[in-house]
What we know:
By secondary structure, the protein is an alpha/beta fold. It has 8 helices and 9 strands. The strands form 2 sheets. It has a 7-stranded parallel sheet, with helices on both faces. The chain has a two-stranded antiparallel ribbon with strand order 7-8. It is globular.
Amino acid sequence: MAILEDKVAIVTGSARGIGRAAAELLCEHGAKVLINDLDVDVAEQTAGEIDGETLVYGGDLTKPGVPDQLVTHVIDAWGKVDILVNNAGYTRDAPVHKMSDDHFQRMLDIHTVVPFRMCRAVAPHMREPAKRERDQGIEVFRKIINISSISGTMGNAGQANYAAGKSAIVGLTKTLAKEWGQFKINVNAVAFGWIDTRLTAAKAASNTMQIDGETVQLGIPDQYRELIPMLIPFGRAGTTAEAAGGVFLLCTPWANYIHGQVLNVTGGELGGMTC
């Protein structure tokens, strides 16, 4: 029997990158997985390429009501939620003195407000079954994994908005762990270092995404990309599959007693010294 047999998982931002790798790994080990992306066509394509049972929900999770609609879509199809991975995100980099209010708020919205709304949306579908199980004297563990970054735990020049959002998700994680531990809902975070995705690729004209009709430039300046591998003991960025491994670990029964923690998946970047 697969380790996640009969589990239902939601992975936000899962049509590409780390989210896709996590969705593939969860499916590989028996879970049914909701694939989500801003672009429903890309989400549909990804779902069709993953070997396992999937469901698709396209939409902008920063819009009011959309997280609730996504969760309702899963409940209508599969009747429950066992795992939530809050992965959706992007970057809008600039030094503080050049950063607009809008770009600062957008990072808070996607990296902190959306995970909060997703957790609130799944709450009745995780807490209520847990209450019945508690009354019956049985333990069934459910999982919430929030994606953070060492930009959030250590700070990073040019990313005050992203770092603030990724720091705040750690506070949300630790608070939910205290509130929901009684329901055997493991709540943890994964803080990634340098992972090879379109967010850390070169700032090329082709490396963009569309949000509300606006073209958002992704990527990192070449001079910084050249520096970072020297700070990682392995001498290279992590792959999306390696990043997904940290997420998968926290979804398994082997992590049932890991709670309220931040798992650093960094390859030892900057000595691995994060809080």
